[in-house]
Design brief:
It holds the Pfam family Ribosomal_L23. The protein has one helix at residues 42-50; strands spanning 8-12, 15-19, 30-35, 54-62, 66-69, 72-75, 79-86. With 90 residues, it is mainly β. The two termini are 26 Å apart. The relative contact order is 0.24. The model has no long low-confidence stretch (mean pLDDT 83).
């Protein structure tokens, strides 16, 4: 289990985005975000709403974990992970 410090949920335009925990807190240039699979234009949203200068943004579609309990299959929802590189460190 990870720490809950880096999990801040920000809602905008009906699009939840969760900031994932960075490895170090000095000179942060790359951040990881977790959002819904239907999220698009993440770079544009970060630049227009928050004023970040984004150099590039990459996204990955991740499948939710699947677990079996008592013969029944339970699945966590799918999500999209975005890696955003900033022009200047935070």
């Amino acid at each position: 289990m990870g720490s809950r410090l880096g999990r801040r949920i920000v809602h905008f335009a009906n699009l939840p985005i969760k900031l994932l925990m960075p490895t170090s807190f000095t000179n942060i240039r790359e951040i990881a975000l977790k959002t819904t699979p239907s999220a698009t234009k993440i770079k544009r949203v970060l630049e227009s709403l928050y004023g970040f200068e984004v150099e590039k943004a990459h996204t990955l579609n991740m499948e939710g974990k699947k677990k079996k309990r008592g013969g029944a299959l339970f699945a966590q929802p799918d999500y999209k992970k975005a890696y955003v590189t900033l022009r200047s460190p935070l």
